[in-house]
Amino acid sequence: MRRFLSLPLILATLAQAQAVIPFWHTAGPPGNTVLEEAIKSFNKSQRTYRIEARYVGDYREAGVKLLAALRSGGAPVLFHGELSFLPRLAQEGVALALNPYLQNLPRDLYPEMMRTTQVRGQTYGLPLGLSVPVLYYNKDAFRARGLKPPRTWAEVEEAAQRLTSRTSKGLVISTDIWSFNAIVMSLGGSLVKDGLPAFTSKEVVEALEMLYRMVQKGHAQARNLAEAQFAVADFLRTKAFMGIGPTTALPVVLAQTSLPFSVGVAPLPRREGGAVPLSGAALAVLKGASPEQARGAVAFWLHFLEPKRQAEWVRTTWYLPLRKEAERELADFLKDPERQAVFAQAEVGRPWSQDPELVVWYSYLEEALERSLKQGVKPQMALEEAQRKAMGVERR
């Protein structure tokens, strides 16, 4: 007699045949909706792989949780983390090199964006969301004072002075490494040279001296990482009229609140020869993953890169499109001249952190920034101390 398998048994058999890929991600609102749709769509589109996703907090929270899981067990196969974290994962042998699985990529991927996930010539990650910096400004305040969006750092200083009043500052400054590095790169400099910290290089000193000057004159307010929410509040409550952030910052704010004024977006002022950082996050396949799971991770990423889905991702999050084909779907989105100018910075975008040691060094730099901008220590002195501490780690 022929025996028929029950439906639950058939489903169980199919599930066993699938390569299950546990996935930790950091996508919060509003981008989480697009990512979650892509995961559901991918799982329904084929039977070879299954993504099992879990939200694990923002970049820093996720990094802490991953390190704990790597020590105690229970780490995922696929991890969505901040770009500067990836080189360290590669150096420690935690992230797998993906070159063998990247043989048939779409030809319209932007090469410079693909370089963001390379470490010493090997690809250790899959770029998921890349952004460029923006100079955000209060359009109403600028209009009232007859100001135009600054195109140079000298114009930023002048605008900060004219916007400052008894109750408000012209500019709010964050002392985190990303914001400061964006200014350094715009001046043509780098925080790392030849694999070593370059905290006392000409452009780094120049960048901090400029910020120090504005703070000392009372034209700018400095906020450290612990005060990040206050930095945003300063701008939203018109306690400051300019600020630097990634393209993705505005959609996050607009998803949570309505603004009482018009927000302007402008490219970051940039000296000739300067660049802007391509920052954001990437997918990493972690050690212990089987070849089939690695292939599944790449297959999911390619599914996410489908042009229409990419266009929806860009509209929702203001991340850069990773494929040229997606731009055809974004003609309406890029009609706005300010938005178009901001997104055009991708042409001068460069990977901002491909040095594994930077995650060890940057705490010394952030400490120097805070000591200088919040405690009044001279920029050169603060940076020299940070350089000594970083070099001390390097020699151990």
TrEMBL record:
Organism for this UniProt entry: Thermus scotoductus
Keyword tags: Signal
Signal peptide residue numbers: 1-19
Protein's recorded name: ABC transporter substrate-binding protein
Residues annotated as transmembrane: none
PANTHER family linked: ARABINOSE-BINDING PROTEIN-RELATED, DIACETYLCHITOBIOSE BINDING PROTEIN DASA
Origin: domain of life: Bacteria
Phylogenetic classification of the source organism: Bacteria, Thermotogati, Deinococcota, Deinococci, Thermales
